[in-house]
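One record is set out below.
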Amino acid sequence: MIGLKPLKFWFVCGSQHLYGPETLAQVADGARAVAGGLAAGGKLALPLDFAGVVTTADEIEDVCRRASADPECGGVIVWMHTFSPSKMWIRGLNLLSKPVLHLHTQLKAELPWDSIDMDYMNLHQAAHGDREAGFMHTRLRMPRKVVVGHWSDAEVQARIDAWMRAARGWNDWHGAAFCRFGDNMRNVGVTEGDKVGAEMKFGFAVHGYGIMDLADRMAEVPEADTLALAQEYLDLYDVDPVLAPGGARHEALLYNARQELGLGAFLSEGGFKGFTHTFEDLHGLSQLPGIATQRLMEQGYGFAGEGDWKTVALVRALKVMGHGLTGATSFMEDYTYDLTPGREQVLGSHMLEVCPSIAIGKPRVEIHPLGIGGKDDPVRLVFNARKGPALNASLIDIGNRFRLLVNTVRAVDHPDLPKLPVARAVWECEPDFRTALQAWILAGGAHHTAYSYDVTTEMLDDFATISGVELAVIDAQTEIGRFRQDLRMNEVYWHLAQGIRA
């Protein structure tokens, strides 16, 4: 994936000097075994390094400073093998700027009932050592994830993996830059937002360029490179003969290849991780980018239409979180509904720009009129999306804060769409159509989303915790009265929690 930085996580074990050197040596061996077992289990997305046993306030401060300063440290997992008086942790935790996961586990899964003695009890004290730690984390109002269970358990490792993926998405945002060609689509509200506030909260910047900057870069693309990429289209996809060499519209295919190469070069040279444009600002381009945008998204770039920089960033974050899985994440838009009673469904698509990472089967390259924007007919990949559990996520600016909204859905089969020449997905919402859409609208959810088969609600819950933003989830357990009341209570909580700086 483009622009993905190397990242690892630290495993820190807490203890104290009260037990003496012999016990502390056993603590170190046990902690090393847990960290090594997790790392070797094959279930974690990223490496886990044992960062040692800490027993004093100075040691804790030192490890927290080093973790915060290490650009390759994505977060810290803490575990108290024995009792570790939590006042020792105050200075260090106040300095720690990386995400934290508190693993509440112990070295061995089963107790040796027939031989257990006080030496064993003193060595395996996580049952109350982690409670002491948890108190201080709460007292410090420290955002963190708590995972409970034996470290070898598959569910425990899956929950750690979800947190690592969320932390990688968060880390990827810091220092990221997203490119915005032109401005926001005229008079549209939800795609606007506070870019200064976003950089303060999330660490990414949005840089604006004129669309002619892209047109100029396209003009520099060598003809040989354009021809080679057009051939790649022919090799990879089912290409409409009218676009093939000798076809009446082959020049349009070549123009789209030049768009992809120019746009890709512009993004790479600028160090961007995503981009947006608007069909209301295309001066210098003869077509709205179609296949170019789709394929760049497949490489890992975030994208959203109409100047929607927040969804650009969110698509990129979800692609990073799902990296190493199926890769199935895309920009999406709720377009229209089938309101047949009892089987209501959403038809999701966009004018052109749905990522082929979610395709089932081989995409087809076609050219058709767009009917909006007043430009030449654009070339695009046409396909159906895969079926199964998925989610839609929306990042919105509601004035005094950002809200991350999530709806779990199930993509389903659907009739042929012979007259709809765009990529598309059809899904059913949880818990049901009416509840989901009422909740989405009450929460202010956008019509643009990041749509993923890889990313889970747990990952986005962890991501929101790490980011310090509000999360609203619409899933199988959602009840509209409770959801509405939660939104009201959130107004109070987030107003107080963020303080004047927000």
